[in-house]
């Protein structure tokens, strides 16, 4: 007789609290979305200003037969200016009526900057001058516009104009300067700890004040935070608003992270009080049975939350280190006597990339522990993907004296390309850390009737047969000493196994002769 009224009271009060909570979440989401759109509009306005400035600059340059190749040393990207187009121009170019690159000269020994431009725009020229084929909705060719594509370190942009003669003039945008300029339009990170300063900097609609705990991020095409402002020192935000930027920055998004209000309405609080009073006896009887389970669950959640929060906190300063080291390298390029500083910056960039891979692994592990890790398999060509990963690792491996041997071939398979790239990267990273004395790595692809296989072998010290299964467990390392020769987190192989198994594949380890061999399989694409 007592249980049914208690259960009924519990249900009605819980429903009241849930309704109040839902209303609070909805209101918070709408408010943050509007604020995020305000920031997006501010960035779009800045891009329109840049477009007008670049268009006028190209019109001035068109008086010459070819675009001028200005000395990069004469351009100071740090000089204060409302909007000086020269700050943003990394390289000028011109396509002739026949679609051939007129300037810069592709066959000349033009130096690292022009060589970098030729390499970055190889796909544009190879695909038949996509700029010249651009059309409006009515079918006529466009006279000017932006073109963006993903290359090397991130999203690249060019702005171009077609002349009446059919010649196309354009400029390749300095990505580092563009990011720096856009960051300059956003609130200062240092203002995050001061509420009044933050409200003055944000410049939003009347009566819209910022709440403590709001965090905003500008996220690039590789889902890396380019900039962040705000503070969530009280805990990790539990809700997000995502707004994609307008063209030509459609590959970037603005994120608002916040903790939604938790205070329910008065009548909901009274309902919560009824729950406390009505279920006191039930809680007292069940307390001793649940206490141990809840304690273990809380400790597990705290560990995952801590790892997740620390990793997120590391991403922002790491991104700034990478950004400003790149800006410094650009500034030193071509300066006489700047080679030692360039070498130091190369070490910074290499170590920052290594730290970035570690953070990526930790975040993947945290998502898996929370049950939010997902993969999106689709039909991909495995050989180009493997070759792309090898090329990204080649400078680091060759610098360590490791010879790379690439053999075999395979057809299409069903896999998540980002996840496979992370798996192969983790296997190569292990060779760089633990098998560098072997001075050799082999990466082979093959296929059977149902599967595609990728093998990574080395000539290192090898792994004992009885340890080949255990090393795929989290935090397991063969040498756990603090002063071990090679440092590692013990997460790389664990993450590799979890990612492969979520794609209906299998990963194994076996001794080599010498060294060891890691092999993983993926389902072959159905023809």
Short description:
With 527 residues, this protein is an alpha+beta fold. Helices cover 46% and strands 19% of the residues. α9 runs antiparallel to α10 (339-370), α11 (382-399) runs parallel beside α12 and α12 runs antiparallel to α13 (492-501).
Task: Describe the overall structure.
This protein is an alpha+beta fold and 527 residues long. 46% of the residues lie in helices and 19% in strands. The chain contains 13 helices and 16 strands. The chain has helices spanning 3-61, 85-88, 112-120, 122-126, 130-133, 175-185, 195-202, 266-278, 280-332, 339-370, 382-399, 417-434, 492-501; strands at residues 89-95, 101-103, 144-151, 154-162, 168-173, 215-219, 225-230, 239-244, 253-258, 378-381, 403-408, 412-415, 440-447, 451-458, 506-511, 516-523. A 5-stranded antiparallel β-sheet has the order 2-1-5-4-3, sandwiched between helices. It has a 5-stranded mixed β-sheet with strand order 11-13-14-16-15. A 4-stranded antiparallel β-sheet has the order 7-6-9-8. A hairpin with a 5-residue loop joins strand 4 (154-162) and strand 5 (168-173). Helix 10 crosses helix 13 (492-501). It is globular. The termini are far apart. Mean pLDDT is 75; it is low at 69-81 and 191-210.
